Amino acid sequence: MGRGEHKEHKRKRSRSKERKRSRSRSPRGSREHREHRDRDRDRERRRERDTDREKTRDREKQRDAEKKKEKESKTAIFEMEESRNDTEEVMKMKEAELLQGVERRRRNVEKWRAQKKKEELDLQSEQSDEKSEKKPWNLEDEDDEDEFDIKNEGISEENPVKMEEKVEKMDTDDEEDPLDAFMKEIATKNAKKTGNSTQKASGIVTIVQEEKPEPEKGQVLENEDNMDMVIDDFDIETAAASLCHKGRMLAQTDHSKVYYRKFKKNFYIETEEIRRMTKAEVKAYREELDSITVKGIDCPKPIKTWAQCGVNLKMMNVLKKFEYSKPTSIQAQAIPSIMSGRDVIGIAKTGSGKTLAFLLPMFRHILDQPELEEGDGPIAVILAPTRELAMQTYKEANKFAKPLGLKVACTYGGVGISEQIADLKRGAEIVVCTPGRMIDVLAANSGKVTNLRRVTYLVLDEADRMFDKGFEPQIMKVVNNIRPDKQTVLFSATFPRHMEALARKVLDKPVEILVGGKSVVCSDITQNAVICAEHQKFLKLLELLGMYYEEGSSIVFVDKQEKADDIVDQLMRTGYNSVAPLHGGIDQHDRDSSIADFKTGVIKVLVATSVAARGLDVKNLILVVNYDCPNHYEDYVHRVGRTGRAGRKGYAYTFVLPEHQEKMAGEICRAFETAGCKPPADLKAMFERFKSEMAAEGKEVKLGGKGFEGSGYKYDEGEAEADANKKRMTRLTAQLQRGGTQARYKV
């Protein structure tokens, strides 16, 4: 390297050092800058990483949701196919049974026809032999004999045809006579026909050729007891429905041949606080709880808190969730009695919490038993008189059943049975049902849908109506097919004396709990009675709705379905659009929809018959109007009891006609007095005048009839007499009019 090159190299090095020095002095080259830059980069990386994780998490959630939907759709499709297969299996079995019966009956009829034809031919041959023996033979009569043989052949050909036609005619008849009577009739007619043909043999006989009808193929014989009826057109659906109808005759179970597993009834453990209560303290506490009256041996003391009745933590959480602060009067006494394993008759006013009184012990009873296996029926059965009450009890039971891992099924008439059968076949520890549909389900598919072998807890809700003459046979069919050592409880707001004897058929040494007296209107309800004519009722109804419409929902009770529809139309014309009817003539789906809308407040006014008077619980129901006065005291109690439930205030108005309802005026006065209220003066005076008039005729007026009885409401004495007087007046008016017309003609 030369001297010049060395200097140049040295110059470059100095420049490089200066650049490094200046770079190190700049802010970007400082340590703080580098640390800040590194932090920014790390923050950016973390942000990108978090974004990627969120995207991954969202994708996983979306994937899980899609998998869940796919699984649910597959499950729904599988359940639909299973339900469809079950229905098809039931139909196939019924069809096979019908076809077997048809084939058996067809063979019997063919065999009988062949036998009758053979007997007829034998009888004719014997008679012809006797005739030929009696007639002496000679050469001159040879031609006549040949002619006679030809005539007899015609007769023998003619008679089977007529006999066959008669058989076909009688077979196609509509089950007029049983088979034995038919056979005797045919035998008598054939004997007469043979006798006539023998008498005509000595004279001139004309041979009439008749066309024999071809036997129709595919004929189906029905009704095994009457084999003379032949049906040409066979409908498998009609036959299946007929079999289902016959299945309502539920077979009686022989309990001596069935092995029943032992079960525990008594779960009640008395707490120290309850144990220390003396008899005087218990009596005072029962008096404090709406004057509880108890009948029975060794009845437990009433409880004060939920913890004292032995409910578990899950049930306690549900009680807190739905704000059940403490037991009501009926619950305080009934729950320890049922938990002790006793049969119970509970009588309390409407809205007092009777449903929860039998549900809590029922859950404890079920949880103590082994889980259901395949083919097992329910452990607890709750029978209700109406579909609406069954649905309401079902919803109340579901509040506790889901946290406890139990299943509840509801079966009632008026809707399709296939879905209800599917729920039962999947297994349910609790079944809420109406009596008729329960019998249908038990008899369906030869008893393979469900059974009562595991039932150890039976509830009859609204017991007085359940033991009405129309329900008692169905109730007893179900009860008699349940094991004899079951635990049975009955609850109702009314319990007439004549029903108690019937109720004791299914009870074993029961404890009777009476809260506040039988058939009492709740003290939270303000009762009112208005005496007005029929044409004044609607204006009075509009006045009441104007007062209470904004405060809550209202129910208007009438006697007839047509009147309910008419009042709904009139209210809608006057501007009340959120109104709907509720009666037995409405489809079940529409009834359920109306009740659901009424509970949620979509419908503010419900115009109903007494079908809504049982078990309907609506929280914001403020007003009940008896547009038509009830027929008896118990019906009045249940109608009015739709309001003022669970400690809320309510108002009840009853429209009483000034004529023909004097007897019911006395019943309403009785309801006022038993609830601790003073009846209206004009209503009391109306009843007193009626009593005086009856006393003048030598008749005594008695209040407190039998209440619910028979398949419907009956006229009381006053109404029957009023109806008879009205008919007499109508006849008298007609006679007077006819007399006036005749007088004018005479003039």
Automatic annotation (TrEMBL):
The gene is ddx-46. GO terms for molecular function: ATP binding; hydrolase activity; nucleic acid binding; RNA helicase activity. The keyword Nucleotide-binding applies. It comes from Caenorhabditis elegans. GO terms for cellular component: P granule. Pfam families: DEAD, Helicase_C. This is RNA helicase. It catalyses: ATP + H2O = ADP + phosphate + H(+). Residues 8-28 have a biased composition (Basic residues). Belongs to the DEAD box helicase family.
